[in-house]
């Protein structure tokens, strides 16, 4: 279905440059613009005054954001938890009368935490009477405040006694936020669409008690990826290294990005166990690590050299250098226990590099065993030590299957071809069709 009339769209995001959600938002804005729509991206800074006053406002905003985050880390959350509640101090719903919002045909929410939008802002958005689409980057939109629920399924009924909060009870912060969102979902009905990049997140969203009895739409539309632009003009490497095809030329190269090693969900401990197992099996690798890590985590990774690996620290990389690192690798490993739709997997595919991870969350929707990588069985957060040991062995086995594949060139070609499902034109059409169906519900079937 094609539409001659371009849409006026506003994307709301707490950041236009920092973090995976910001990257996905700006890629989506570009693909919708390329489809002929008039797209405006608004972040906190778009309400700040110009000049010195604006700089002072930015400083206050960043200070408030980091102060509240540190306070919550120490006094509200359990270690490793990721939970967001109302911004502090209170928000200003008058901002939702921004000309771009009042004139828009539809509004798309992205990451709105870190002091950007709160309940009063969302209520003001609802009162504009426009279709609202919430492009979800995790579970936060349909829980009582956690970004990833782990083994907890309370959000399927009603939150409360949240296991991620230090001080919790039947009517804790998660309960109140859950009930508030349930009222909001009931009010909006089919004017609200929760859009999940991965089938896993879409399925999880449909189970939420927040949607019970409402007509809120849940749809699955992936994040777009333009191989020409988002790969920063780094050409994919479709020829496997001589190490894999002929057993010469050095060690296999493994690449992974060090992101928040203190978060148990990121699976650092299991990756280290997996690499230890590979070393004991006599498979020493060059392990390239991108990112910034603390001294303790760095020491744990460096200790892998005792198992025959060689660790190469790349530090913080720019986008092009990151893409080149994917291309050098024989595999990219993402050991997360729960993820939505990682940009890093798309970036690895763009380099023609197969991916290894656990068959958990959206990773299981992106990585196909024997086609573009390999998967280890999922493991739950909080598992016993014996289960963790087995998970490490399973992850090592998945890496071995990629490194020992009979036709590694097929894996590299399969990785690149996996981007066909996230071409910008397809994503833009899916969003266009959904928005038109929400504007004119009687003229469309869903």
Helices and strands in order:
Elements: E1 8-12, H1 20-34, E2 38-42, H2 51-75, H3 99-102, E3 106-109, H4 119-126, E4 132-135, H5 173-188, E5 192-196, H6 199-206, E6 217-220, H7 242-245, E7 253-257, H8 268-280, E8 286-290, H9 295-302, E9 310-315, H10 319-328, E10 331-334, H11 343-350, E11 355-358, H12 363-366, E12 373-376, H13 385-403, H14 408-417, H15 424-439
Parallel strand pairs: 1-2, 1-3, 3-4, 4-5, 5-6, 7-8, 7-10, 8-9, 10-11, 11-12
Helix pairs in contact: 1-15, 4-5, 8-13
Describe the structure.
This protein is α/β, with parallel strands linked by helices and 446 residues long. It folds into two domains: 8-224 and 423-443, Rossmann fold (3-Layer(aba) Sandwich); 242-420, Glycogen Phosphorylase B (Rossmann fold, 3-Layer(aba) Sandwich), CATH 3.40.50. The protein has helices at 20-34, 51-75, 99-102, 119-126, 173-188, 199-206, 242-245, 268-280, 295-302, 319-328, 343-350, 363-366, 385-403, 408-417, 424-439; strands spanning 8-12, 38-42, 106-109, 132-135, 192-196, 217-220, 253-257, 286-290, 310-315, 331-334, 355-358, 373-376. Strand 1, helix 1 (20-34) and strand 2 (38-42) form a beta-alpha-beta unit.
- Class inferred from helices and paired strands: alpha/beta
The count of β-strands is: 12
In what range is the share of β-strand residues? 5-15%
Going across the biggest sheet, name each strand in turn: 2-1-3-4-5-6
Q: What is the CATH top level name of the largest domain? A: Alpha Beta
- Overall number of domains: 2
The backbone outline, from C-alpha atoms, is globular
CATH fold description of the largest domain: Rossmann fold
- Please report the number of helical segments: 15
Q: What is the CA–CA distance across the termini?
A: 13 Å
CATH architecture grouping of the largest domain: 3-Layer(aba) Sandwich
